[in-house]
Amino acid sequence: MRFRCLTCGGIYRSPLADGMEYFHACPPLSDAELRRAGVPEQGLESADRTRSGARDQNLIFDGPNLRGRVKSEGLGQTEVPEPGGIVR
Ligand SMILES: [Zn+2]
């Protein structure tokens, strides 16, 4: 299945082609995103790149039942169709 992260807009598949589950974590803010937010060129290097509401699907195991939970849901994710759809 293919998903879009509702925090950063990233698109990813899970499970991956080799069957492994993918755990999305939003990347830090890019130069382009900082520029759009009004950060001047000379401020890019030292800018805070923390993404507000970042999603991190990596699991933490801190409960009594040994079932992991997502570190941070962020704004969530939504399923998106495969590009081009499926030809039958
Ligand atoms: Zn993301």
Short key terms for the protein model shown above:
88 residues, flat, two-stranded antiparallel ribbon, binds zinc ion, mainly beta, 3-stranded antiparallel beta sheet
Question: Can you walk me through this structure?
Answer:
The protein is built from one helix and five strands. It has a domain at 2-27 and 53-80. The strands form two sheets. It has a three-stranded antiparallel β-sheet with strand order 2-1-5, with no helix packed on it. It has a two-stranded antiparallel ribbon with strand order 3-4. The model has no long low-confidence stretch (mean pLDDT 92). 7% of the residues lie in helices and 23% in strands. The structure holds zinc ion. Zinc ion (ZN) is lined by residues 5, 7-8, 10, 24, 26, 55.
